[in-house]
Design a protein that fits this description.
heterodimer; A: alpha+beta; Aldehyde Ferredoxin Oxidoreductase,  A, domain 1; Aldehyde Ferredoxin Oxidoreductase Protein, subunit A, domain 2; Aldehyde Ferredoxin Oxidoreductase Protein, subunit A, domain 3; 6-stranded mixed sheet; 17 strands; B: alpha/beta; Ubiquitin-like (UB roll); two-stranded antiparallel sheet; 2 helices; 8 strands; binds iron/sulfur cluster
Chain lengths: 591, 106
């Protein structure tokens, strides 16, 4: 008993077969689970030259050893594949209940290769796995798909992770949704499943998940529970959801507005977490075993759903120049129903808005047009009209019309809700992110804006490279463990190491934890290098390096890549091109 | 904005600052107010004025006298006063001071 379910299932969609094998000890020891399993298995099974939308690409669903063990916020699973948006080895993380159910059904990981001739779904059922016909589910939204599977199995304990129509239509930023509103959101995972004709994975089961040392785990659980409960940050997440960030990011003058043309949105209050709590919030909601409950259940004017999280709230709001909360929430719900990444979709619309205003594209949409924005989300979701072009992502769209510089993306993935010009370390983290434009592979906003675990000056570049490396490695390990990243506001590396050691019985201390994270990071990097990525890709849109911010405290600043990148590479043990040196690979057991 | 209010206790040579509060601070104080303070006032002067006016605020701001709670952030015109002179940061006429309790998201 080591916290793992014990088995993995390999599904060959072309052959229509499933094969169940024990989860290898070495994989657990070196990569823990989640993103670690995903990157290792992708590396082992897939030629790096593989086209993302091809039979040969492989998708790995993996939970971690802490997923579903009753540890507070131990709820996550991770999906890993080659992204059709960025071309990088990418992973996306989701909470809810599905990860726990996957393990209760008997599986630490599901490895999907090939392409089915007709739509199918995979049923994981108490240690068994089978492919089932999904022709009747094709074209259905994520909510309809979930209900249909639960009904046909006649079992309300079944949990479903699926794609919507956007994944079927191969929208390059289609996502995967479980329990109707939790998303493995980024990097276009949904398009890869759509290409493979895999509509859903359903899980049911009640197999035991036991820790190596239950007594010791109980003690550590109690300690982390207290730390989380007593942490003021976690309380704010419960009271106001993640959109509590809107005001603090705006008041710091780093809330990207109108496609990053400015970084202050005068009407931010109208879409803030505080306003959501006062107006449309019905109740907070949590993932499996969560005592924080940052999720929002909303209801108004016949609209019901979950969210919005901070990122889509910003992207449909300030980034599109929109201050109409209800329109933002509707747009977010469309993304959940159709299975669209609710960062990339609105950020691509914001890119179109700027191009249309500048006359580079002939389209009537303008910043602030909420009705027009809603129409565009629907068009992207089903690839209708201009939506077909926008479904390629902002970079490919802007490039087609001769202005790639107006895509606010890194490695072709749209940037999240922070302006790097006023947050230098965050800029380095997102520019070097191995999955492209991103905030959760190393959340530097925490020290540079929120002051946790300590306050770092966001305008300063000195010392940031070391922080970024540590955050990236620790996050990779947390993602591999199955814990929600939001625990990191209250817990430290020692807490995670103790949780993992008690659960798995493996000798994991803080040094080993960070080594595992660093191993995952380097392996992901190596895969990308083989796909042709190098130093010139570790950057941000030219606007952020050359057009200074105009307002507030960070006025006059640009993002200063050159002051940090060489130091970052050196600290990582990489050469000037960003390639890991042999010594580093040997140290990590990768050579 | 709801709960706007004003206090006038400054001197002729005083300064006027705008204070904004966020998240749980709004449970004990107004969302936005304009205050007149004596010339030479600092962030500390302002917080003393506010904690006298709003019971409950002091405990939310301070871990001990003169020491802010972890993760409380105070911005002066968008700049965290931690990187200026902390509680001794001087205030100027027209400043906007934003008060944030511990919070995060992502
Ligand atoms: S903090 Fe939020 S995202 Fe994390 S487990 Fe809880 S509800 Fe889910």
């Amino acid at each position: 008993m080591d916290g793992y379910a014990g088995n993995m299932v390999s599904v060959d969609l072309s052959a229509g077969t499933v094969a169940i094998t024990p989860t290898p000890l070495e994989l657990k020891r070196e990569y823990l689970g989640g993103r670690g399993f995903g990157i290792r298995l992708l590396t082992d099974l897939v030629d790096p030259q593989t086209e993302p939308l091809s039979e040969k690409n492989t998708v790995i669903f993996a939970a971690g050893p802490l997923t579903g063990t009753g540890i507070p916020l131990g709820s996550r699973y991770e999906v890993t594949t080659i992204s059709p948006l960025t071309g990088t080895a990418s992973s996306a993380n989701s909470g809810g209940v599905f990860g726990w159910k996957m393990k209760k059904a008997g599986f630490d990981a599901v490895i999907v290769t090939g392409r089915a001739e007709k739509p199918v779904y995979l049923l994981l059922d108490n240690g068994k796995a089978e492919l089932r016909d999904a022709a009747h589910l094709w074209g259905k939204t994520t909510g309809e798909t979930t209900d249909a599977i639960v009904n046909e199995l006649g079992d309300k304990t079944v949990r479903v992770s699926c794609i919507g129509p956007s994944g079927e239509k191969l929208v390059r930023f289609a996502c995967i949704i479980n329990e109707k509103a939790r998303a493995a959101g980024r990097a276009g995972m949904g398009a890869v499943l759509g290409f493979k004709n895999l509509k859903a994975i359903a899980a049911r089961g009640d197999l035991a998940i036991q820790a190596a040392d239950e007594e010791r785990l109980d003690l550590v659980k109690e300690r982390v529970r207290t730390k989380i409960q007593e942490n003021g940050i976690e309380k704010a997440l419960h009271d106001y959801g993640t959109a509590v960030l809107v005001n603090i990011i705006n008041e710091n003058y780093v809330l990207p507005t109108r496609n990053f043309q400015t970084a202050y949105f005068p009407n931010a209050e109208s879409i803030s977490g505080e306003t959501i709590a006062k107006t449309i919030l019905k109740r907070p909601k949590g993932c499996y075993a969560c005592i924080v409950q940052c999720g929002r259940v909303h209801e108004f004017d016949g609209e019901a759903g979950e969210g919005p999280e901070y990122e889509p709230d910003w992207a449909f709001g300030p980034d599109c120049g929109i201050d109409d909360l209800k329109a933002v929430v509707r747009a977010n719900n469309i993304c959940n129903e159709y299975g669209l990444d609710a960062i990339s979709a609105p950020a691509t619309i914001a890119c179109l808005m700027e191009m249309a205003e500048k006359g580079y594209v002939d389209h009537p949409i303008r910043f602030g047009d909420a009705a027009g924005m809603l129409a565009l989300v629907r068009q992207i979701a089903t690839r209708e009209g201009i939506g077909d072009e926008l479904a390629e992502g902002s970079y490919r769209f802007a490039e087609k019309y001769g202005h790639p510089e107006l895509s606010m993306s890194s490695k072709k993935q749209e940037l999240p809700a922070y302006d790097p010009r006023g947050i230098q370390g965050y800029g380095l983290a997102t520019a070097t992110s191995v999955r492209g434009g991103d905030h959760v592979y190393g959340y530097m906003i925490s020290p540079e804006v929120l002051g946790a675990p300590e306050k770092l000056d966001p305008f300063v570049t000195e010392g940031k490279a070391q922080w970024v490396k540590t955050f990236q490695d620790l996050t990779a390990a947390i993602d591999a463990s199955g814990m929600c990243l939001f625990t990191s506001f209250a817990l430290d590396a020692q807490d995670y190491a103790d949780l993992i050691a008690a659960t798995t019985g493996m000798p994991i201390d803080t040094t080993e934890l960070l080594r595992i994270g660093e191993r995952i990071w380097n392996l992901q990097k190596l895969f990308n290098i083989k796909r042709g990525f190098g130093r010139s890709d570790d950057t941000l849109p030219a606007r952020l390096l050359s057009e200074p911010l105009q307002e507030g405290a960070p006025a006059g600043q640009v993002w200063r890549r050159d002051e940090m990148l060489d130091e970052y590479y050196a600290l990582r043990g990489w050469d000037a091109e960003g390639t890991p040196a042999r010594e580093k690979l040997r140290e990590l057991g990768l050579a | 904005m709801s709960g706007d209010g004003a206090v006038t206790n400054g001197t002729e040579s005083g300064i006027t600052v705008t204070v904004k509060s966020f998240a749980t601070f709004r449970e004990v104080m107004e969302t936005q107010l304009v205050l007149q303070l004596p010339g030479g006032a600092t962030v500390q002067t302002l917080l003393a004025e506010l904690t006298a006016r709003y019971s409950g605020l002091g405990g939310m701001l301070f871990a001990a006298p003169g020491r802010l709670r972890d993760y409380v952030n105070i911005l002066k015109n968008g700049r965290n006063v931690h990187f200026l002179a902390g509680l001794d940061t001087p205030l100027d006429d027209g400043d906007v001071i934003a008060l944030f309790p511990p919070l995060a998201g992502g």
